[in-house]
């Protein structure tokens, strides 16, 4: 099983085509996929405390900083464009050492370049996970991400 190194920062990126369910794996706060229990919901159910919720400004699926088992974790679910991905900068400023985000792989390489640049500039170890549109069982990817913590 994967183990985080205590003195590193991590950027976990769920990548996939637009509308493949990336954001549902991370947030699903509006119930669009009733059978999905998201990463965010799992953290909250397991006692995570919301440190900062950016919903007033974000206008994307979810941007939130959590405290969970002594770890500061950021979740930013809407990443089909570079402007949506810029929320990871806010989560880094909030002190999140672990940031989980979604990113489209079909955006002329802009989102991939932004993520790679952010990780390098801010000393984050990049972990890429892929969400394929034919994966109807979200729970495996959600369970894997949750199990990292």
Query: Which range best describes the helical content: under 10%, 10-25%, 25-40%, 40-55%, 55-70% or over 70%?
Result: 25-40%
- Please state the overall shape, judged from the principal axes of the Cα atoms: globular
Order of helices and strands: EHHEHEEHHEHEH
- The gyration radius over C-alpha positions equals 14 Å
Strand content: 25-35%
Strand tally, please? 6
**Whole-number mean pLDDT:** 81
Cross-sheet strand order for the largest sheet = 2-3-4-5-1-6
Largest beta-sheet characterization? 6 strands, mixed
Give the N-terminus to C-terminus distance in angstroms: 11 Å
Which structural class do the helices and strands define?
alpha/beta
Which ranges are low-confidence, i.e. pLDDT below 50, for 5 or more consecutive residues?
none
Total helical elements: 7
Description:
- The chain has 149 residues and is α/β, with parallel strands linked by helices.
- Helices cover 32% and strands 26% of the residues.
- It contains seven helices and six strands; from the N terminus they run βααβαββααβαβα.
- It has helices at residues 22-26, 39-45, 55-58, 82-85, 87-93, 110-121, 139-147; strands spanning 9-16, 49-53, 63-68, 71-76, 98-104, 124-130.
- Strands 2-3-4-5-1-6 form a six-stranded mixed sheet, sandwiched between helices.
- A hairpin with a 2-residue loop joins strand 3 and strand 4.
- The chain is globular and about 35 Å long.
- The N and C termini lie close together (11 Å).
- The mean pLDDT is 81.
């Amino acid at each position: 099983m994967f183990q985080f190194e205590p003195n590193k920062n991590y950027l976990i990126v769920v990548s996939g085509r637009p509308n493949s369910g990336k954001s549902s794996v991370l947030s699903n706060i509006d119930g669009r996929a009733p059978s999905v229990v998201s990463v965010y919901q799992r953290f909250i159910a397991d006692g995570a405390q919301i440190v900062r919720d950016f919903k007033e400004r974000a206008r994307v699926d979810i941007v939130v900083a959590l405290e969970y088992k002594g770890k500061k974790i950021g979740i930013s679910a809407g990443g089909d464009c570079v402007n949506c991905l810029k929320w990871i900068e806010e989560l880094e400023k909030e002190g999140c050492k672990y940031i989980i985000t979604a990113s489209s792989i079909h955006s002329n390489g802009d989102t991939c370049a932004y993520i790679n640049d952010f990780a390098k500039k801010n000393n984050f170890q990049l972990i890429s996970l892929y969400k394929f549109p034919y994966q109807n069982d979200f729970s495996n990817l959600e369970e894997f991400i949750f199990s990292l913590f």
